[in-house]
Amino acid sequence: MPSIENPGALITAILSAAPQPLKRCLLLVPMQVLGCWPDTYIRPGTGAREDLYLTGDDLGLGGDYLATVAILNRALRMCQHHAPEAVVVVIVDDPRPGRPVPRPTHHELITVLRHRLAEHNTHLLDAWILTGAEPGSRWTSLVDEDTGVLADHTTTESGEPARQIESVPAVLETDPALTEQVAQCLRERGVVLTTEATYLPDHSEAAVAARRDRLRYALTQIHAADSGTTLSAAALAEMAITLEDIEIRDCLYALSTGPCRGACLAAWTQLVRALPAPGRTQAAMMLAVTAYTCDDAALATAAIAIALSDEPGQQTALALAAAFACSVTPDLIRASMRGGYTVAAELGIDLD
Hints:
Number of helices: 13
Distance between the termini: 35 Å
Largest sheet: 7 strands, mixed
Structural class: alpha+beta
Low-confidence stretches: 56-62, 153-167
Order of helices and strands: HEEEHEHEEEHHHHHHHHHH
């Protein structure tokens, strides 16, 4: 995740994801603020591209008038539909004789945009303007006049080729055939995966016995996956359904962050790869805490990004993302999950 404290990297990430061509345009990107000072990490959402100028040459405008109304309308639709906490803006414009970049009209546009966003409780984090999207292009903030140059993100500081950043690591890439099989199993069961707590756990004798059996089933599948078994579509669907039960989930969070956490990685990885979007949130959060307490921050960050891509407003996922960004110690994560041992003991199961 890029940091707002490193505008050059953030601008590069936004430009890389933007539709082409990047010429005389304005990019609006909704943001979720996740981190802690001094490194405030942010998660970009799906942005929007608008032409910077009116294109009504048939009206004799010559394409030199800012498309202020269209830009404001797009920003307001973004606020109404997505309710972002904040927005950043990137403008790409070309200088012309007597029309430098930036110039007062650019500042005026951003001032108006900031006020309109504020009316919808959305903060304009920053707005940057460039004359090109290539490495070496100079960017300037229209908010605080900060400036910088886009780095060549294809090489490292030592001159060696840099690894291309993948949105999803290979180990978590979806298996389309398996995903369709799991989706079919879920449809046959009439199950729609969700993170919403729509009911209180049933503590009747029959419900407790059923919960105990489902937890034992999950533990069996975790052991099988750790032993190298590829879980079947039916087993993965059953595991996903099991995670819908909040008390079983508490037990598995405790297991996945405790001494046996390493043995849980394979099962949660298989489950995240197999589940159809947007039903991966619970499995992805389970994988995230498991990886984080196994000191694999990269896998944890990738997993929580998947959870948030499926449910951007999921509060537990947002809290975990903030904890990872702030480098909360794995011991604190483990301590927060220990209550699951008690729940498992009440079901007659020793997780140790």
